[in-house]
Design goal:
about 90 residues; 3 strands
């Protein structure tokens, strides 16, 4: 069996004017559909400015979105292989 190399690229974009952070998690894998998860975080005006926290929240949400999409792809593949409905759980 050959090992496959899958890569997740994370892109983080901070917007100071509206106190938001946007993140995108892009999956690059051989023979797989292109998938990208999106996450956002917004700092409460009363909270101290700690950009790292917004980055962490936005990235976590983007990765969770990507994981959900990958589960949906796997469910579709299971349905095709087994010719019946599938519901993989995280």
């Amino acid at each position: 069996m050959q090992a496959e190399h899958w890569t997740v690229e994370l892109v983080i974009d901070e917007h100071q004017e509206d106190r938001t952070t946007h993140a995108e998690a892009r999956l690059q894998a051989p023979r797989r559909p292109a998938l990208a998860g999106v996450g956002r975080a917004r700092r409460n005006p009363d909270d101290p400015e700690v950009p790292r926290i917004g980055d962490e929240l936005a990235v976590a949400r983007a990765l969770a979105d990507l994981a959900h999409q990958l589960l949906e792809v796997a469910a579709g593949d299971i349905e095709v292989a087994n010719r019946q409905e599938a519901r993989p759980q995280a």
